[in-house]
Amino acid sequence: LSAAVAVSHSTTVALDRYFEADWQIIPNGIDTDVFHPSAPSPPGLTKDVPTVLFLGRFDPRNGLTTLIDSFRRVKAKGNRGRRARLVVVGDGPLREHYYKQANGDKDIVFVGAVLEGRPSYYAHSSVYACPTTKASFGITLLESMACETPVVCSDILGFRDVVVDGREALMVPCGD
Fold first, then answer.
1. 107 neighbors 82 (Cβ within 8 angstroms)
2. Which of 5, 123, 156, 163 is the most exposed, having the fewest neighbouring CB atoms within 10 Å of its CB?
3. What pLDDT is recorded for position 126?
4. In the chain, which stretches have pLDDT less than 70?
5. What pLDDT score was predicted for residue 78?
6. Which residues on adjacent β-strands are paired with residue 5?
7. Are strands 85-89 and 170-172 parallel, antiparallel or unpaired?
8. Which residues neighbour 84 within 8 Å (Cβ) at sequence distance 6 or greater?
9. Integer CA distances (angstroms), 61 to 1, 3, 152, 160, in order
């Protein structure tokens, strides 16, 4: 090899167990001609209530269980509760598990897998929530920021390579 390349410091930490190398960090990037705040509104998403966006594969490490539980607690605060919507963009073999966890809550909307329309969901959500427990890099954080949508994410090593708590994102302890 002419060079040992990794997308982030957290990736080198994981790889150092297997390879001894002088790592060159070349972070991932995104296309800001695709991810931008003026993306058209996605079908069915209205601005009548604050929208929390989850975008990811249905995999336990992506933290959707934590987000659904947190969303319910936030909604329940106050005397009459808060109006809010959780839009879940993604799919995977655990689909039925997460549908059951949502328990028919009309404020939790499952969109399914979306490839081309992702910028629309970011740009028209109030906040992007990324409760992932393991990641080597936060590409979805970059996509959300390019669409000027605030980010709340887990405080994990891979995300610390992309954002600073209180500056580009609000970082919370994993599983909180």
1. no
2. 5
3. 97
4. 1, 78-79
5. 64
6. 24
7. unpaired
8. 49, 50, 51, 52, 71, 74, 75, 107
9. 32, 31, 16, 17
Is-contact 62 42, C-beta < 8 A? no
Query: Which residues does residue 141 pair with via DSSP β-bridges, in sequence order?
Result: none
Q: If we measure between CA atoms, which residue out of 18, 21, 17 comes closest to residue 1? A: 21
Among 60, 73, 83, which residue's Cα sits nearest to residue 132?
60
CB-based contacts of 132: which residues, under 8 Å, 6+ apart?
Answer: 56, 61, 62, 63, 153, 154, 156, 159
Classify the phi-psi angles of 148: left when phi > 0, otherwise alpha if psi is within -120 to 50, otherwise beta: left
Which pLDDT does position 44 carry in this prediction?
A: 84
Residue 137's nearest CA partner among 4, 1, 9 is: 9
Max Cα separation, the chain? 63
**Residue 131 in tokens:** 């409760």
For residue 30, which amino acid is it? Answer: I
- 76 C-beta neighbours (distance < 10 Å), count: 10
Residue 165 DSSP symbol: B
The pTM score is: 0.91
Name the nearest CA neighbour of 163 among 27, 72, 51.
27
